[in-house]
Amino acid sequence: MSTIAHTQKRGFAGTVWEYLTTVDHKKIAILYLIAGGLFFLIGGIEAMMIRIQLAVPNNDFVSAGLFNEIITMHGTTMIFLAAMPLLFAFMNAVMPLQIGARDVAFPFINALGFWLFFFGGLFLNLSWFLGGAPDAGWTSYASLSLASEGHGVDFYVLGLQISGFGTLMGGINFLVTIINMRAPGMTYMRMPLFTWTTFVASALILFAFPPLTVGLFMMMFDRMFGSGFFDVAAGGNTIIWEHFFWIFGHPEVYILILPAFGIFSEIFPTFARKRLFGYSSMVFATVLIGFLGFMVWAHHMFTTGLGPIANAIFAVATMAIAVPTGIKIFNWIMTIWGGKITFTVPMLYAVSFIPSFVMGGVTGVMQAAAPADYQFHDSYFIVAHFHYVIVGGVVLALLAGCHFYWPLMFGTMLSERLGKITFALFFTGFHLTFFIQHFLGLMGMPRRVWTFLPGQGLETGNLISSIGAAFMAAGVIIFLINVVNTQVKNVQVGRDPWKDGRTLEWAIPSPAPFYNFKQLPLVRGLDAFWIEKMEGKTEMTPAEPIGDIHMPNNAFAPFLISLGLFIAAFGAMYQVDDKPWAIPVLIIGMAITFGSMLYRSIKDDHGYHIHKEDLLDDADKGGTR
Amino acid sequence: MANLQSNSGDPKVNYEYRRKKSADEMRMQVITFTLMIFFTVLAFAAVGAGFSKWFIIPFVLLLACVQVAFQLYYFMHMSHKGHEAPQLFMWSGIFVAFLTILTFLTIIWW
Q: Tell me, what's the pLDDT at B11?
C-alpha cells in the first residue's frame, strides 16, 4: 500500500469497512466520539424519564420497578459508556499529537479496546429488550443485586466486564505511549497538561480496574455458577463487594475529572493568550490527586459501620484532596488574570466550570465530615453533589472539548452562535436542575425513590428540577443540530483555526495526514508551537530528516475478538436457565475470540512503509498553509 | 535501550571502566546471593528452633520481602538506569494491593 490508496475517495461500504478495521488513533477517536455520544443520548433519555416521573407527586409515568431499572441504567450508562469513552475520544484524538507521536504505542490494542467497550455497552443496553434491565443501582450492592430476579444484573456484570477489559487496555496503551513515544525534546515537564492528566488517569485505570474486574467475577460466580462470596447464608460477606466496588469507584471519578481538568487547562491558556499559570504545581496537583484518590474510597461507606477510627482516617484523607484541587482552581484563575481574553464557546464553558465545580467540591468536603455524612447519606443532597462535580466538571469539559477540538478531529468549526445558545440553555438548566436538589435532600427526600407524596414541601423543588432538566435537553438538541449543520456545510477551516493554538496538535496540517508528522518535531519548551510562533515561524523545527515511515496495517481481528466475547456472554448468562443452546453458544463465542487471537498470533503482519519519495510528493498537498 | 546492557554498550566508553563496572556488578551479585542463602538458612533455623508462631511468621515474611527486593534490584537489574517508570508503577501497584489487603484484614471481618 502507498499513500495513494489513502487519499482515494471511498464509497459508503468502503468507509464502513475502513472504520471497522481501522487502527488509526484519529479514526478510533471518532468511533469513541460517536459511540460515546450515542450512549450519552440514551443515558440522557433515561434522565429525562426520571425527571418526568418526579415532576409531580404520586406520578405514575413509570412503575416502581421500571424506575429502578432506569436509574440503574442512567448511572451505569453515563459513567461507563458515555463520560469515559467521550474522554477516551479526546485522549485518542489529541494526546498522540500533543506529544509528537505518529500513533499510540499499540494501534491494534487501541482498536481492540474500542470494540470491547462498544460490545460491552451494546450487551448492557440490550437488556432493555431481553427481559428487563439491571435494577440494583449503578453501585449494584451485593445483597440487593444477588436477590434481583431475572437477568438484569447478569447483563450489568457481563457487560461491564467486557467493556472494562477495553478500558483497561486503552489505559495501558496511553501509559506506554506517553512513556515511550514523546518527540525529541518533549520531556515530562514539557508535556501539555491534557497529556499529563491522560497519563495520571491512565495510571488510575491501570490500578482501579482490576478490583472492579475481581468484584465482577465474584458477582458473576455468585449469580451464575453457585459460589457464595457475598452470600451471608453461605458464609460470605456482603461488605466485600462494597469495598471492591469503591476501591475501583472512587479512583473512577478521578479518571473522569482529571482529563476534564486537562481539557480546561488547554482552553484557559489558549483563550487568555497566556502561559498556564503555575504549570509545575498543576502537574504536582494532578499527581497528588491521583495518589490520594486511592486512599479515600471508604468515605462512600461511612454509614456501613466501619467504626470511628476507620471513618476518621478516611474523612481526613478525603478532606486533604481539597488542597491539590484548590491549587488547580487558583492556577486557572491566575491564568485568566491579566490575559487578553476572548469568550469563545470553549472559554465560556471553561469560565463557568470554575464556580460550578467549586460548588460541587464544597459539598464534597461537607460530606467528608463523617458525622455530617450520616445526615446526608442516601439523600438528594448526595445526588446534587455528584451531579455538580460530574456535570459541572466532566460534562462541561466534554462540551467544551467538542467545540475546542472539533476543528482538529473533523477540520470544520462548530457554529459559535448555536454553541452559545447551547451553553446558555445547558448551563442554566444544569443549575436549575441540581441546585434545588441540595435543599430537597436537606428536607429529607431520599435518593432512588420512584415517587413522593404531596404536602411534604417537596413539590416545588422537584418541579423546578424537572424544568431545569428540560433546559438541558434543549441545549443538547441544539448541539446536535449544530453538529449536523456543521458537517453538512463542511467548510474546512485549515490549520490552527483558533489562531492561538499553543501545543503541538495545532502545528500539523488540517486535515491531519494519517501519519501525523512527516518529520518528528523538535520540542524546545512548554507550549512548543507557541514558542515557534513567537519567533516568527509558522512551523515546527523538524528533529529528523525525511525518511520512511513505518505504519501498521488495518485489522479486522479486534472486531471479531470483541464480537466473540459478546456472543459468549449470552451463553454464560442463559446457561443459568438450563437452556440447551446456552453452552454451545458460550463455546462458539469463545471459539471466535480465541480463534481470532490465534490468527493474529500466527499471521506475521509487519505493517508497511510509506516511502520517502511519496512523502516528498505530499509536500505541496498537505494542509492549507 | 540503555537498560539492555549491564553497563554501557558503547565501544567508545573506556574498556577499563567497563571492566571495573562489571566487576562491581559481579561482586554485588555474589554478596546478595550469599545473603539470600543465609536468609534461607535463618528461615529454616527459626522454624526448626521452635519459636512462637507470632515470631516465625512475621520474621519469615520479612526475609521473603528482602529477598524479593534483592531479586528485583540485583538479579533483574532494576537498580540500573532506565527503570524509573517500571519502578514507579511496580511500587504503586504494590501499595494499592497492600492497602486492599490491609482493609480486608482490618475492617471487613470484624
A: 63
Chain-wide mean pLDDT for chain B? 84
- List the single residue in A with minimal CA-CA distance to B90: A207
Bin A2: left if φ > 0, else alpha if -120 < ψ < 50, else beta: beta
Domain extent at residue B37: 2-79
Identify which of A138, A146, A156, A151 has the alpha carbon closest to the alpha carbon of residue A74: A138
Q: Scanning every residue of chain A, which has its alpha carbon at the shortest distance from the alpha carbon of B105?
A: A240
**Owner of C-alpha cell 524509573:** B84
Kindly give the residue spans of alpha helices, DSSP state H, lying in A377-523: 380-389, 396-410, 416-442, 459-489
Which string of DSSP letters, residue by residue, matches A220-252? Answer: HHHHHS---SS-GGGT--THHHHHHHHHHHHHH
| Range in A302-311, A326-335, A354-363 with the lowest mean pLDDT | A302-311
The amino acid occupying position A345 is V
Give B95's contacts in chain A (Cβ within 8 Å): 294
CA-nearest of A270, A235, A256 to A344 is: A270
CB distance from B84 to chain A under 8 Å?
A: no
C-alpha cell at A374: 450520616
Provide the residue count of chain A. Answer: 625
CA distances from B108 to A76, A186, A228, A381 (A): 26, 46, 16, 28
Q: How far apart are CA A102 and CA A98, in angstroms?
A: 10
- Spatial distance between the Cα atoms of A346 and A203, rounded to a whole number of angstroms: 27
* DSSP characters over A198-213: HHHHHHHHHHHHHHHH
* The one-letter amino acid at B63: L
Residue A294 has pLDDT above 50, yes or no: yes
- Name the closest residue on chain A to residue B99, using Cα atoms: A295
> Do B70 and B86 share a structural domain?
no
Report how far residue B88's alpha carbon sits from residue B91's, in angstroms, rounded to the nearest whole number: 5
Q: For the segment A470-516, what is each residue's pLDDT rounded down to a tens digit? A: 999 999 999 999 999 999 999 999 899 999 999 999 999 888 889 99
Contact between A139 and A83 under an 8 Å Cβ cutoff? The reply is no
Strand ranges for A529-621 from DSSP E? 549-551, 608-610
Which of A203, A237, A243 is facing B103, going by the closest CB pair? A243
Q: What is the pLDDT of residues A261-283, one digit of tens each?
A: 999 999 999 999 999 999 999 99
Q: Phi and psi of A227, rounded to 5°?
A: -85, 180
Give A34-67 pLDDT, tens digit per residue: 999 999 999 999 999 999 999 999 999 999 999 9
- CATH assignment of the domain containing A265: 1.20.210.10
At residue B8 the predicted structure's pLDDT band, cuts being 50, 70 and 90, is: low
Q: Please check whether residues B44 and B75 belong to one and the same domain.
A: yes
Among A337, A42, A79, CA closest to A208: A79
**Structural domains of chain A, count:** 1
Q: Is it the case that residue B7 has pLDDT exceeding 70? A: no
What's the rounded Cα separation, in Å, for the pair A268 and A174?
24
Whether residue B87 sits in one domain with residue B61? no
